[in-house]
Amino acid sequence: MDLEQGKKAVCRVMQLKDKLISLQSVLRVAALLATTAAAVVMGMNKQSYTAVVAIIGTRPVTQTFTTQFKDTPAFVYFVIANAIASGYNLAVLVTRRLLQPRAQSLAVHLLDMVILALLATGSATAASIAELGKNGNLHARWNPVCDKFGSFCNHGVIALVSSFVGVALMLALNLLSAAAKSPHSNVSGQ
Fold first, then answer.
1. How large is the average pLDDT for residues 159-176?
2. What is the mean pLDDT of the chain?
3. How does 22-59 read in b/e, with b if 16+ C-beta sit within 10 Å?
4. Which of 40, 115, 29 is nearest to 79 (CA)?
5. Would you list the DSSP string of 139-176?
6. What is the mean pLDDT of residues 32-38?
7. What are phi and psi of 144, to 5 degrees?
8. Where primarily located (predicted)?
9. Is 183 helix (H, G, I), strand (E, B) or coil?
10. How confident is the model at residue 173 (pLDDT cuts 50, 70, 90)?
11. In a domain, 187, yes or no
């Protein structure tokens, strides 16, 4: 009787472990897609705006202004952070079957925390600059630019939302991984 209950318990633990690994894989693929989308959308973000700067006689003199993500170090950091997170998640998905589960589990958990911090800082930095671009700063007399570069700002918002989704997914991965490593857990993850 005890042997039969022990076998059932082991079977339930194995099923729970398989579900946990499947959930982690789904979350990791979603995080890969979100961070890749954020990096690509912001990396391709560029817009030009032509304005009349003077009128000489009856002829207007125009100036074309161009903005792109490379103009702001915060956006460059954002693109790099999301690209690193994408590459990392892809590498984990590809190599997770090749490595020993026990050794890989701790390394992946620790690297997940590093990637989470990298993504969160990149997203927060870009969000602060995006807010400045949208609203300006009256005290410093910095005017908003989103009224002139609306498409650039809209693409930036899409990239930011995608990146913050990636942050949330990486946080969920970290929480699942930590729960699996809890001394009260019978399941070892990833």
1. 95
2. 85
3. eebeebbebbbbbbbbbbbbbbebebebeeeeeeeeee
4. 40
5. TTTBPP-TTT-HHHHHHHHHHHHHHHHHHHHHHHHHHH
6. 97
7. -65, 150
8. membrane
9. coil
10. very high
11. no
Q: Tell me the pTM.
A: 0.82
C-alpha to C-alpha distance for 54 and 62, rounded to whole angstroms: 7
Residue type, 95: T
3-class secondary structure, 103: helix
- 129-130-131 Cα angle (round to 5): 90
What is the distance in angstroms between the CA of the first residue and the CA of the last residue of the chain? 32
In a domain, 38, yes or no: yes
Q: How many CA atoms lie within 13 A of 48 on its CB side?
A: 4
pLDDT at 177: 82
Domain assignment present for 172: yes
- Measured CA distances, 31 to 17, 58, 87, 109, 175 (Å): 21, 56, 11, 15, 14
pLDDT for position 105: 77
pLDDT at 54 over 60: yes
Give the pLDDT confidence score for residue 8 in this predicted structure. Answer: 58
Residue 51: alpha-carbon gap to chain centroid = 35
Give the residue carrying structure tokens 């202004």. Answer: 65
Residue 47, beta-bridge partner list:
67
State which residues form the domain around 128.
2-181
50: β partners: 64
